[in-house]
Fold this protein.
Amino acid sequence: MTTTPYHHGNLRTALVEAAVETVRERGPEGLALREVARRVGVSHNAAYRHFADRDALVDAVAERAMVELVGAVHRRLDTVDEADPVARARRRLVAIGAGYVEFALAEPGLFRLLFTAYPDAPDAEGAGEDPYGMLNVALDELVDVGYLSPKDRPGAEVTCWSVVHGFAVLNVEGPLRGLEPSDRAAALTSLLLSVDRGLGASGTWPELAPRGAPK
Amino acid sequence: MTTTPYHHGNLRTALVEAAVETVRERGPEGLALREVARRVGVSHNAAYRHFADRDALVDAVAERAMVELVGAVHRRLDTVDEADPVARARRRLVAIGAGYVEFALAEPGLFRLLFTAYPDAPDAEGAGEDPYGMLNVALDELVDVGYLSPKDRPGAEVTCWSVVHGFAVLNVEGPLRGLEPSDRAAALTSLLLSVDRGLGASGTWPELAPRGAPK
DNA sequence: GGGGCGATGTTGACAGTGGTAACACCAGAG
DNA sequence: CTCTGGTGTTACCACTGTCAACATCGCCCC
């Protein structure tokens, strides 16, 4: 819908594109509906014919951002060229993490928007078309291939997502944002290796688990 | 400074306390300087005698939040009662992570403020008086005790911080925010165990880092 | 073709925000 | 006592999101 030019001609997509550009430049909090409208050369309030409110525009931008994130991860995934199944599966997992972080650092504004204004539903759409699904697929591969113990599979996706997301957040808007690129890259490599190692090392340490929360 | 009551009597601290309360209720983005002033029963602009701008107030709130975060982590750390040095060091690391996440979930507003508006300098003040310092101390203990290989020590603090911070963010404001508390607790346990395991499992997998070499 | 009608875009207004400037008060120093 | 500097107030500005009323344009149907 809204494919044929009316007064303006695809105002909606023009607004979204301008909004994406604004978020790129000024971050999510710098996104002003009025300024976007101004940028497109249309009066404010014109936007209200296409978006219920500011949040709706933000959601539209988030959709674009998600597409780009998936693209970045896929691009990394495609570089994995490995014969040995175990090494391949492990490399693929690392590639997902690297792509995720790569996107966060390349598009800090879009990345932040993606996770501050995300709708209620998680990424759980298909399985493989969003980073979460891709991650789950990769982890299942690791189990199939015998690298990851099936009993360690549950929860592994949360752990992997957490570590990569945390690294991204700390480096994009957190206390690590001032890191030298080389230091950052080294830390990321160390982190990804550590995760890989943690998944491969089977075994439990039951004495650590219990001991409930205080107060 | 500002200890003796003048017109109002410690307006500054009153403003900070009202701001903290506001952030608790409405989050960082709901913090309006004017509303805080109103809340204290003072005209807006009175605040400008004590804070250069809104950001200065936010920084003051962040200071309080940091104190509370440190308190939460310390409280957890104090529950560790373990004779065996290795087990004790490992438990202490887990306690830090648990306390960090506990605070994030208990005070989502303050936690988010702490990491969206944090000043340029990292937590690098003393060593032990902020979560980052405490984490480094705990990791050094793990090395001393022989659990963590010295060659794996560099970068470990970033990995640990990332995984815990990422988990907190995903659960506080991210796609995992809708998780059942029991599921969340299980995921956290799994995550902490996984990190512990990853640190303990020594050895490198060189074929992952560069590129090439069989297994 | 012409009338109408709904989708689109515009102007105007309102409340709320952060921020600046000019003024009012009040305590203590001299 | 006056004067001075810290403190708080009123008035104003630019900006934002949002609503309501009005204008315009394209398309459908008679």
User: Anything to note?
Assistant: Chain A has two domains: 1-51, 59-200.
